[in-house]
């Protein structure tokens, strides 16, 4: 494939950059006084993206997108992530919407998709459980049919941004008497439904992104079942493939390396040559990861199918690369990098290192990624 952008792609890239420089709300890249303020700004950004049909860029035009090609999606995601624009990583857009398009009824498409595409509704993903994280098909949260409703009981954990989501994308067990992959179903559920309790989980970086969610006799209309009952594993698997083919990790890593290089050139701190060599290694890793992302987008554009093996490889390599870059950065800053306050460049890398641990867990642990690459990608035996 050609790793250089053609004229149309270059023009679109410049359009995205111009929007970042001129089209975003004032103060979008500043420190916010509260979570509520940050969320308000993020919602404003989503509204402006939706007005350009960029919030759901790859979606068909009839559902509020632009029908963008995989390469256009990559260009957009790359620039947004590199410049740190919030509000662009939307679970509803990334995998809920595509699954609804594939498996949802016409009335569900009409109900859910337009409000995702215009930024009205935010979604969270209700998959993982205390005993079903890496082995997701082992989930035990139950849904039992009762007339026109299903009654939900159980617990979910590590739910990102569940505390401000409008809707949840819920996977539950509807048949406990069949093999674990065959008894799952997926539902759309309002997060303010009676019986849902949301408790915060503060991560080791000191931020509240994750939650544990409890379901106690929660009634969900049967009309909210997406796809066929007991065939929800296919919905889950398709959604995870969309998640893992993201370009975000590439751009975040590249920005971290670029900022470190700029700091070293301007401030000229005294650091060991071994640290400089590590930084060179990380820069090479960023280039490799970017090429992987371009290859994935190219394959999608030619075949219409996300290459699962390569998507797993990019997720694995990108998550672990972020950890290495953050660790190298703290070596550059030395003892200053251990400080939590005041907020500084060094403290941001400290946070990045702590937060990057979750990157190797969420969306599938590194161990699971290696197993899937070996068995499904390379055809190796399970033993």
Polypeptide structure, described:
The protein has 383 residues and is of the alpha+beta class. It has three domains: 7-89, Butyryl-Coa Dehydrogenase, subunit A, domain 1; 123-229, Butyryl-CoA Dehydrogenase, subunit A, domain 2, CATH 2.40.110.10; 245-377, Butyryl-CoA Dehydrogenase, subunit A, domain 3 (Up-down Bundle). The chain contains eleven helices and eight strands. The strands form two sheets. It has a four-stranded mixed sheet with strand order 1-4-5-8. A four-stranded antiparallel sheet has the order 2-3-7-6, with no helix packed on it. Helix 1 packs parallel to helix 3 (70-82), helix 3 packs parallel to helix 7 (248-267) and helix 3 (70-82) packs antiparallel against helix 8 (273-303). The longest helix has 31 residues, at 273-303. The chain is globular. It starts with 6 loop residues before the first helix and ends in a 6-residue tail after the last helix. The mean pLDDT is 87.
